[in-house]
Every structure is written in C-alpha cells, then in structure tokens.
Amino acid sequence: MKKRKILLHICCAPCSVYPIRFLVNEGLNVMGFFYKHNIHPYTECLKRQDTLQIYARLIDLRVIYQQGYQPEDFLRNVVFRESERCSYCYYDRMRSTALIAKRGKFDYYSTTLLYSKFQKHEMVKAIGESVGKSVGVSFYYHDFREGWKQGIEESKRLNMYRQQYCGCIYSEKERYHKG
Predict the structure, then answer these.
(1) Among 169, 83, 75, 155, which Cα is nearest to 120's?
(2) Gyration radius of the chain's alpha carbons
(3) Alpha-carbon distance 48 to 33, whole Å?
(4) What is the C-alpha to C-alpha distance for residues 47 and 62, in angstroms, rounded to an integer?
(5) How far, in Å, CA of 153 to CA of 138, rounded?
(6) 20 to 30 A from 101, CA-CA: which of 23, 91, 129, 163?
(7) Max Cα-Cα span within the chain
(8) Nearest to 31 by CA among 68, 69, 65, 67
(9) Which of 9, 30, 29, 32 is nearest to 95 (CA)?
(10) pLDDT tens digits for the chain (179 residues)?
C-alpha cells in the first residue's frame, strides 16, 4: 500500500520537530517546504534556512526551499494594513504550499504554524481549509500545540538556532521596541 504524501510548510526547524514526528507516526510520507519572503532581515532568513537544512539532513527529510528572496512583496501587501498582516502572511504561505502540493500530487498539505502557541491558531486553521478547497488539495489539520514542550526540549537538545520572533519586520519591532 502506497503511503499518503503530505507537504508541510515549515516556518523554522524548531517548530517542525513535533509536527514531523507526529505525521511520520501517522504513516504519512512527509516533505517540507520552506517559505521565506516574510522573514526579515535576510540574515535571519539565512539562519532559519541553515538550521532547517542541518535538521533535514539529520532526519533524512526532503525539503523544497523557496527560490529568491522577495520581502518587498510581503511588505506591499501589508503596508497600511499592519493590524491584518498575519492573515495575509498565513494566506500567502499556505497558498504557496498548497499550489506546490497540488503540482506535486500530494494528498495533503499542512503547516507548522499549527504548532506555535504564538500564532493565531483558529485563523491558521480557517485559512488552511479555505485555501485547500480553492486550490484542490486537502488541508491536514491537527493541533500540534499538544507537543509544544516536546518540540522545545528536542530543539534545545539539538542546539538548534531558536529565533525569538515570528519573522516579519513588524514582529521583530514588537520584540525589541516596547512602546
């Protein structure tokens, strides 16, 4: 019997630890997709990508790395709508993932955004399901937050680079500028 294939949007290696383990244990053939246009600055993007590459080699995970680096597209779509930036960002990342999943004939797609306690979980789920329907590839929903502690412990044990903000310039500002 052929294993079902899932394309997993990966925001960063630490957030992928538990979801990958869960999906593999569910009998799915997992491939990752690293989307990077929302990550600022470029040096941060490279740290996250390098960490994922090291982890992917360690666990023998195939990953598609988005080509190019276009933070201008992200910024153009959220400027003057900063309070709604997360919904655009979730949509753009999941739509990109779903389109690749459709092209690659994956059975499902999902996202590590469902792992983080800092993301807007219900919004991620709703957008994921909506995008899946519009693109024609099933969104695999699971509340990966149940493995939050396990993922953190494992990423620390592996000495992974662990960023302290979601990735966009706005979340970086919120991290450092309290005012």
Answers:
(1) 83
(2) 15
(3) 13
(4) 18
(5) 31
(6) 163
(7) 57
(8) 65
(9) 9
(10) 789 999 999 999 999 999 999 999 999 999 999 999 999 999 999 999 999 999 999 999 999 999 999 999 999 999 999 999 999 999 999 999 999 999 999 999 999 999 999 999 999 999 999 999 999 999 999 999 999 999 999 999 999 999 988 898 899 888 888 76
Phi, psi of 5 (to 5 degrees): -105, 140
CB 116 within 8 A of CB 79: no
CB 3 within 8 A of CB 106: no
Tell me which amino acid residue 42 is.
Y
Residue type for position 101 = A
CA distance 144 to 22: 8
**Residue-range domains of the chain with CATH:** 5-176 (3.40.50.620)
The tokens for 56 are 């992917």
Instruction: Show the beta-strand stretches assigned E in 29-95.
Output: 29-34, 63-65
CA 133 to chain centre: 19
Residue type, 57: R
